[in-house]
Amino acid sequence: MIGIWVGFLVLVLLMLALDLGVFHRKAHVVSMKEALTWSAVWITMGLSFSVFVYYGYEHHWLGLGNEVDAVDGVINNGMSATIKYLTGYVVEKSLSVDNIFVIAMLFGFFAVPPLYQHRVLFWGILGALAMRGVMIALGAALIAEYHWVLYVFGVFLIITGIKMLVLKTDHTDPNQNIVVRLTRRFFPITSRFHGQHFAVRAGAPASYESEFPGTVALPDEAVNQARPGTWMLTPLALALIMVEFTDLIFAVDSIPAIFAITGDPFLVFTSNVFAILGLRSLYFALGGMLEKFRYLKVALALVLMTVGAKMLVAKWLKEMLGNGFNFYLLGVVLLILAAGVAVSLIADRRGETVA
Length: 355
Hints:
Blueprint: H1 2-23, H2 32-58, H3 78-109, H4 114-145, H5 149-166, H6 178-186, E1 199-201, H7 221-225, E2 231-233, H8 235-259, H9 265-277, H10 279-286, H11 296-312, H12 314-321, H13 325-350
Antiparallel strand pairs: 1-2
């Protein structure tokens, strides 16, 4: 079983290395065409992985499908594992869209140039993968030991969905966030961007922008006034810290959501990873169109409440619909998301405004 984990992690690291080291080695503004192309690539890879899941669990490759799923008490075969993987992937992918709304707000607040946004998102996703790996391991251990934790997760998801419907977060001021305040208190922050660097040493050249054509080198008074040799964080680092923090907050919602579907650690982790890997390209593809999907947040809240309710009545659903009831859950989730997109597009065409 260890071999399958090592192999998957090597695949992920190889994809990330190709992404940053080959295809996005130089900082540049990501065009809509490029973003849509890469979004299609990552989504295709995520969906194609379901083929491996099917045959892996059907033929028990490297120990897959040999253990009882702690959530529904069944041993996953190829079909059940594939349905759970795809349902988890769709749920995690849809919840990552809400993360895009917040990232767009953070980039706007910190005035992160489009030239460097890809770099922030890349390192942000590396941190997100590490954090979610730890949280998934803890969640799987808890569910295996204490099955009643699933009911706690279910109630939590329903409450979170209700909060998404009621609370307005469009005008949140990141400067008031405790993470930003602590960072500013314990680390010196430069007043200007220095290319794609997250830190700069005082006494070094006034700016690193000259490394990138099309940018203008400007003096940085904060760096010039600091003691020579002092390392200082740039605003780009502050944006990265906030992206990591917000992903941690969103993981608190999304990890319980995936455990509503399956307790198999491999299915939970792989569906999360493929959903996160396409987050950067999806951000650049949707970043300029977020206002068009004004009712998508409502759909996401309904998805959370749906999977939360499924956690609470899973035993009853299994008796009524059989072991394949996750297939119906996948259909309901897709229907909710499609309705959210359709209503948003109709409202945008009519010129409606959100209160």
